[in-house]
Predict the 3D structure of the following.
Amino acid sequence: MKEPCVYIMANAHRTIYTGVTSDLYSRVWQHKHHAFEGFTKQYDCTRLVYNAEFGRMDDAIAWEKALKGKSRAKKIALIEAENPRWNDLAWNWYDG
């Protein structure tokens, strides 16, 4: 999973956070374990609800910036087009 991607994390109340990384597996672990202070720790955004992979980091960064510029409704529509139940796409990635 070490390739550029854009991801969206959410909490049970559907508060969302959009990010970009070159290592989705490690980054999601950091969110799930509150490894850093910030938005996702404060709002307990621990569910991976969307991700898109890219061949190049600059393309991933451009998509992240485009997503961050979109309305909340458009981000929700994007999530629900691929993951209508808002399931945690990383539910089985880690032990315990």
Remarks:
- The first helix runs from residue 24 to 32.
